[in-house]
Every structure is written in structure tokens, then in C-alpha cells.
Fold:
Amino acid sequence: MSSDGVKLEHRMILTLVRPGSSVLDLGCGDGELLSLLSREKDARARGIEIDEHAIYKCVAKGLSVVHGDLDTGLADYRDRSFDYVIFDQSLQQVRKPDRVINEALRVGDKIIVAFPNFAHYSARLRKFFFGRTPVTRSLPYEWHDTPNLHFLSIVDFIDYCIAQNMTIEKSVFIGKERIVKPLPNLRAEVGIFLIGRAEGKTRAGNAP
Structure:
């Protein structure tokens, strides 16, 4: 949590969004990030969410949110309808992340992806010493009730972007409520990436 009571993860996402932009938040939950984007970035923010109770909370906040499945919910949007499409802890929950990312890059000029780092040292230690599926602060679910379908590391995602010829324009790594720079694949609990379409050769911004 940052000094103003906002999650550090959300504060870092806000720094990646230009004021006055159009934003689509995929898997927006109860609208916490959407509210921040609208209030602090004057963003024209919309969300897609599958949980009806979360949608009710968004509507109560005056947010524009529609019910939809992220694996199929972008087909009705035109190319480049938004400046940014955001996956905040939702990419690892879709069935076909590759297809959803491609759709997000069609619908948005850029995408922002934030996900828990499965290679964080606490997850590695739990697997090594206890032989159990990791349960950590950034991965707080037991194997039988987790919404996560895919478990990826920061290095996995960087390799994926390179293989798909996507440009990593910026990256931020978060540990225990602070920014992590050295050895992020080991020390960061959450990775945040600003992704754009590659023009010519892929470049990896400030990612390690």
C-alpha cells in the first residue's frame, strides 16, 4: 500500500496511463482500479467482469462495466477502440491467454499486464521444502479454489513477448510493498508490463 492508501500495484499502473485516455479494464473486479483511473487520470474507463456481485459494486460506484467472459468478450469491439487495455491480475485466469492478448492488442493501442510472479522466492521455498503448491501473499489460494489457470514467471512473460514480437515499453516489479530492481524474477511478487505492437525489431524496454 502506498502512502495515500492506494495499492502500490495500482499506483504503478496509473503511472503508465496518459491523462484523458480511453481504458478498458479486463476483469475489473469491484472497480477499484477503474475508479482511480477515472478520478486521477480523467480516463474514459470501462470494464468487463464476469462476477455479477462485483458488477453490482462497480455500478454502485457509477462505473461503466459490462458482464462478459474475457475469453470471448472482445469480439464486439472495433480495432483500436481504446488507448489502453488492462489485465490487472486477470490474464492468468483466462483459458486461452494467447488469444486474449492478441484480441487486446487489436482492441487497444497498448496493453498493461500485471500478474503474480510464480517464481518468487517464497513460492520456490514452499515447493522445495514442503513439496506443496505455493500459497503466498501474491498467490493466496489453495490448489482447489484458485481462479488462476496459468502460473507464469516474469522471465516466462518476457520470453513470451519476445517470441510473439511484442514490444515491452516499460516494466515495473513489486516486492513487499516496494519497487524491486535487481533479480526481479526471484524477488518480485508482481510484474507489471506496458506492451505495444512491435514495429520492426522487438525491444525489451527496461526489462531485465
Notes: The longest strand covers residues 108-116. Residues 97-107 form the longest helix (11 residues).
